[in-house]
Amino acid sequence: MTADQGRNPVGELIAEGAMVAGYADGTAERSPRPLTVIGPPEFSFRMVLTGVHSLIQYSDLLYALSVFRLRIRYKQSILGWLWAVLQPLALMGIYTLVFAHVVKVDTGGIAYPIFVFCGLLPWLFFSSSISSAVQGIVAYPSLLTKMYFPREIIPLSYLAASAVDFCIASVILAALLIHYRVAPTWNLLYSIPILFMLGGLTTAVALLCSAVQVRIRDVGLALPFVLQVWIFATPVVYSSQSVPPRFRTLYLLDPVAGAIESLRTAVLGRSPDTFTLAAGFAVTMAILLFAYAYFKRSEAAMADVV
User: Fold this and answer.
1) Can you tell me the mean pLDDT for 192-207?
2) Residue 141, exposed/middle/buried by CB under 10 A (0-12, 13-18, 19+)?
């Protein structure tokens, strides 16, 4: 028997592994190693802060994915970025024909095209962001199983792309203000916190629906119908003044309704209702904290069930 024939490769590997692990005597006997179990984090405010810190560390990935969404959104499209303008313009024309000439809607003396356009812009941002973000995680399962990153980056990248469309369509709103001679006032500054509130609410709904969609795909199937009903439950094509006074306060507790009505009021030169704004901010923050905490807790199992 030669020296090579007497070697035991398996035994050598075990001994080598033991020495690498820190056993200088080279024996195969090992002491118990510490076992780390990775599971869902506890549902707490600290988990939210940790998630936000991690999201900031991966901000470059969020930027890269947002740019990617913008590049492929209108890829191989003849009209390209014009679709960001044509969609709200087409809806404005249809609603103007129906609610200004067939069914009269009281707008308080404001031309109906600009009245409805002020409501359509925030609503289209809200609805398009949620519709695309909910399908984002299930559409890219390979990203979840092959690498780690904060999973909320995927739905947030869709929100960023919709925000760019919103900014482009805002140019048309500015042109309508000039055409109908609506002079801007200092009340226009209210639109800044209102847009932040709308963005926070959109983020909350997108994160919550995305997390549920991973396990229950009915969310994505039911969402178009829910949004169709929701648009008529918000003051997009009509004014909140059309709502009976006894229901108006409860009606405006819906932060989407409050944000759209307050934004329209501010853009048209009037001061928004402070109670509506305060209630909207409170409800938005509560929903956003809960939605983000639920998303982070569900994040650990997404790669297993997607």
Assistant:
1) 93
2) middle
Q: Measure the CA–CA gap between 179 and 182, rounded to whole angstroms.
A: 8
Is 131 in contact with 247 (CB distance < 8 Å)?
no
Q: How far is CA 149 from CA 43, 57, 61, in A?
A: 20, 10, 9
* Amino acid found at 81: W
What's the pLDDT score for residue 39?
58
Cα-Cα-Cα-Cα dihedral sign, residues 188, 197, 166, 103: negative
Q: Would you state the structure tokens that stand for residue 104, as one six-digit string?
A: 């009269």
- Residue pointed to by tokens 């930027």: 63
Break the chain into its structural domains and give their ranges.
1-35, 43-305
HSE, CB side, 13 Å, CA atoms: give it for residue 136: 27
**Which residue do the tokens 């639109």 mark?**
191
Query: What pLDDT, on a 0 to 100 scale, did the predictor assign at position 10?
Result: 40
User: Which two three-digit tokens encode residue 246?
Assistant: 């006894």
Distance separating alpha carbons of residues 13 and 32, to the nearest angstrom: 19
> Does residue 11 surpass a pLDDT of 80?
no
The tokens for 265 are: 């009021």
For the full predicted model, state whether its pTM sits above 0.85: no
